[in-house]
Amino acid sequence: MNIAQFTQEFPDLCAASKKLHANPPNENRCHSGHTFIHDLTVAALCLKIDPNEPIAIMAACAAMVHSVDHCVEKDKVKDTIKYMVEENLSHILSAPMRSAVAEAAIRHKELNRDDQLTVQITLMDADRLANLSLVTALNLARTAPKERPTLELAHLDEENPATTYRDPQSTLDEIRTHFQYIPMLRMEKAKEIGHEYAIELSKFVGRLGDQISELGLEDVAI
Q: Which single residue of 30, 155, 185, 222 has CA 20 to 30 Å from 113?
């Protein structure tokens, strides 16, 4: 199954996700870059990286609700995910399958652990891959805090020493932090795609610095 077929098979779930993103109850979203397109991207990657189609489909369903934590208040995340899963999948998936879908979405931000079901592992790998995509690079620039620069001329070749994963000093540095996802990938197909995405993202980051250097902008003292 590909993503187009998935959206046809699960129209209610996709519509519910799109509606939530369009009108998030939490006006102070912690990361507005987690859009409906992000959820679709993660779902598409779930379908690509897991060779077990039933598990891949369950993970794709989880992908469509995994950004709930960016749309509602923290204390309402679990209940909202469970509600969306029950409301839109009860006529398609069995109770144990729905439970696995909800659990994967609720727990998707965890670090790698031995007690995670394959549905969750697939979702986590797909989410990390999505964050290495060029689409995400565009989203990060669009959703960055107004006070944060797109890049710093003094740090074209490497991260600002003050940058952390949670507090990047520029959008360029935030993109760089996403390379940390590569060693976290667990599924073989995810590792393969991750390698390809990392190469493309590295080219983008490297060429960006080259163009600015070619203009001599890094030598400007202001």
A: 30
Tokens 């760089």 correspond to 176
Torsion, Cα 143 78 18 127, to 10 degrees, reads 60
Whether 65 and 17 have beta carbons less than 8 Å apart is answered as yes
Measured distance CA(209)–CA(204) in Å, rounded? 9
Q: What is the pLDDT of residues 81-104, one digit of tens each?
A: 999 999 999 999 999 999 999 999
Calpha distance 53→55 (Å, rounded):
5
Per-residue pLDDT reduced to its tens digit, 10-33: 999 999 999 999 888 876 555 556
pTM: 0.93
Query: Closest by alpha carbon to 98, among 71, 138, 128, 58?
Result: 58
Q: What is the phi/psi pair of residue 173, to 5°?
A: -65, -35
- Find the Cα–Cα–Cα–Cα dihedral 117, 122, 128, 134, rounded to 10°: -170
